[in-house]
Amino acid sequence: MDTLTPTLTLTTLLPLAMFAIVSSITPGPNNVMLTASGATFGYRRTLPHMLGISAGGALMLLLVGAGLGTAFSTWPLLYTLLQIAGGIYLLWLAWKISQAGGIQEGRTHGKPFSFWQAAAFQWVNPKAWIMTVGIVAAYTPRESFVANLLLATLVLAMVNFPCISVWTLFGSAVGRALRTPQALRWFNRSMAFLLLLSLYPIARELFAHGA
């Protein structure tokens, strides 16, 4: 069989697209951070952050699909260490978000995530791993796998950016509506709390392995 010809059909592409949309637009570390960034820095300054998420997620899907997941199966400790590092990093991010001010303050103090920071963050983002593994396992046929993986990556890249933009636009609108620094600080603290809640899957898996 020609491995350069994708075998995904309309009946399989639609479920893949729906899975990518649902995974991209539902709450998670990326979207919580984008909401806080939009409120603090505005949409335009958060644009590199959004592009980094979409590009980083697409690259992650390609590499995991190409066989990086085998390394984690061979060395489970490597994946555990990655989870721990991700948890610590998310704790630090939650603290930074809780201390953020408003849009005007954000323009003079601090700066949003860069493209490369956002792309690298996907590797310690538990939701990104769930989405990636789900696409590879359930929506990428084994026949003509390389071509199907490339097509799945294209689908993810196409739907991810519009979905995460919704959260940035929402945060930007909130940032303009909450006029006082104190009100915006409380909003950012609530975003930080949601980010802490996103640590639950990591903690549950680590404790399960520890038990």
From TrEMBL:
Any Pfam family matching the protein: LysE
GO molecular function: amino acid transmembrane transporter activity
Keywords associated with the record: Cell membrane, Membrane, Transmembrane, Transmembrane helix
Membrane protein topology class: Multi-pass membrane protein
Keyword Cell inner membrane appears in the UniProt entry: no
Entry's transmembrane regions: 6-26, 47-71, 77-95, 145-174, 186-203
Record localization: Cell membrane
GO annotation (BP), single: cysteine export across plasma membrane
Main location: membrane
GO CC term, one of those recorded: plasma membrane
Protein origin, superkingdom: Bacteria
Protein name, UniProt field: LysE family translocator
Annotated source species: Comamonas terrigena
